[in-house]
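Structure in, sequence out. Go:
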């Protein structure tokens, strides 16, 4: 009975009720009334979709624009359709609150007596629907003609990885919103509808593959998504042939804003089980195991001979990663340029591990070999693991005879520490390392760079016979075992 009487109220009273509800911000009640009956819909729906939204974060946009955004965020096609009918612009961005900042991460003034500041974002209906993974809303907006990506109007602070809390705003492409949030089906839909990787790269200042790989490796720790599903979707898209082969190669070997290639990023996550799958997927798609681009991390100072294998050694990422790179086809001798003089800084992995004496003066107490990858420290146990790196490389065919631009070989580098002007400890270490090398090297084959030649073996044995280290140390310091 009450509902019947309410329906019989004069039209003027319904309009007044609708205006009051809107002024009070009771939009849910207004929406409920508009869905009660056809009669009430004609009275309340115009009030809901027309005019401005009182006390809104964005009073520059009409109510229909906010309704469109609401529909996109809640995957409601009927609401979006009505909003469009009342004049909502599908491509217009709206400012909205995404929550309050965490005092722990807030970089502005701290006031424990005040609520944390509100964080705002700007995005279009399509951008927000993509970020939320609402495939139905995304398809409907695209069918209605929503723009996929506009370089001049990227989303701002919508993505969870954007810098907020007082930092500069983060502009992100629509592909980034899908990849970073882990929405595989949404990403595939965008690519099928023509989303451009070039436009995304221009907006994000790095290729979408980088954000994708970072998301995959980061989420694999929490088992949030199917491993590598997002990366596979992008690699499949590149494999379709839509992208030119040169552009595909450039994408797979590009660097991110931190100067890392995709393979370097995967290597940085060497403790993540999915890393091995990522390496296989990237190399299988065409990522290069050879020298890194000149802009990549580790190539500064004219050292344009860094490879993923050398990067693994430099960052001390473990021999398991080295084995995986070698199994995938990495050159164990470091892709020596021909002629090598064109790259004066080039070095093989063994050159990197065993530093020649003339590459820098040794200070008292300094380790015998390179930096943190020292093979022989004052404490024998400290160098044991890195000496194992040399042993493993040799057993897999690394060359002791391969020369750098200065004509130095790994074997010669170890022997350079046998001079009488050096401490007894260093000469003893050099003798041990040469014996370890000769014991574990794979004999070279004619015409190959692998192993070591008979001539080098003879010279090394003559050098060991001439050294006075063993006689000086006495029988209690016998190193004949080479262990």
């Amino acid at each position: 009975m009450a509902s019947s009487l309410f329906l019989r109220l004069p039209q003027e009273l319904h309009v007044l009720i609708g205006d009051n509800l809107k002024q009070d911000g009771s939009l849910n009640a207004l929406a409920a009334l508009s869905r009660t009956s056809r009669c009430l819909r004609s009275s309340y729906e115009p009030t809901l979709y027309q005019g401005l939204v009182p006390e809104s974060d964005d009073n520059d946009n009409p109510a229909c624009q906010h309704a469109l955004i609401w529909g996109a965020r809640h995957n409601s096609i009927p609401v979006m359709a009505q909003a469009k009918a009342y004049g909502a612009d599908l491509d217009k961005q709206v400012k909205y609150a995404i929550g309050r900042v965490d005092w722990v991460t807030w970089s502005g003034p701290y006031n424990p007596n005040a609520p944390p500041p509100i964080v705002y974002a700007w995005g279009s209906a399509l951008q927000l629907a993509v970020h939320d993974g609402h495939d139905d809303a995304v398809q409907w907006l695209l069918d209605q003609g929503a723009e996929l990506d506009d370089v001049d109007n990227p989303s701002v602070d919508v993505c969870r990885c954007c810098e907020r809390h007082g930092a500069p705003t983060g502009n992100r492409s629509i592909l980034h919103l899908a990849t970073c949030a882990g929405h595989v089906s949404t990403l595939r839909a965008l690519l099928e509808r023509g989303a451009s990787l070039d436009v995304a790269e221009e907006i994000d200042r790095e290729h979408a593959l980088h954000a994708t790989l970072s998301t995959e490796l980061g989420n694999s720790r929490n088992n949030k998504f199917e491993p590598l599903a997002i990366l596979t979707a992008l690699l499949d898209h590149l494999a379709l042939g839509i992208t030119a082969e040169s552009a595909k190669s450039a994408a797979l070997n590009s660097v991110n804003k931190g100067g890392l290639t995709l393979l370097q990023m995967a290597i940085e996550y060497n403790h993540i089980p999915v890393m091995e799958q990522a390496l296989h997927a990237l190399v299988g798609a065409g990522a290069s195991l050879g020298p890194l681009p000149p802009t990549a991390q580790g190539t500064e100072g004219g050292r344009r001979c860094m490879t993923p294998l050398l990067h693994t050694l430099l960052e001390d990422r473990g021999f398991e990663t080295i084995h995986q790179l070698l199994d995938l086809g990495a050159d164990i001798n470091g892709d020596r340029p021909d002629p090598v003089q064109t790259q004066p800084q080039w070095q093989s992995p063994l050159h990197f591990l065993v530093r020649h004496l003339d590459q820098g003066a040794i200070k008292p107490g300094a380790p015998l070999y390179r930096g943190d990858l020292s093979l022989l420290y004052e404490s024998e146990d400290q160098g044991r693991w890195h000496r194992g790196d040399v042993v493993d490389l040799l057993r897999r065919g690394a060359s002791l005879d391969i020369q750098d631009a200065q004509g130095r070989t790994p074997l010669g580098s170890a022997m350079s520490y046998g001079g009488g002007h050096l401490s007894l400890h260093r000469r003893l270490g050099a003798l041990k390392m040469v014996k370890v090398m000769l014991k574990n090297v794979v004999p070279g084959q004619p015409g190959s760079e692998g192993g070591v030649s008979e001539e080098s073996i003879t010279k090394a044995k003559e050098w060991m016979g001439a050294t006075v280290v063993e006689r000086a140390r006495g029988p209690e310091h016998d190193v004949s075992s080479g262990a």
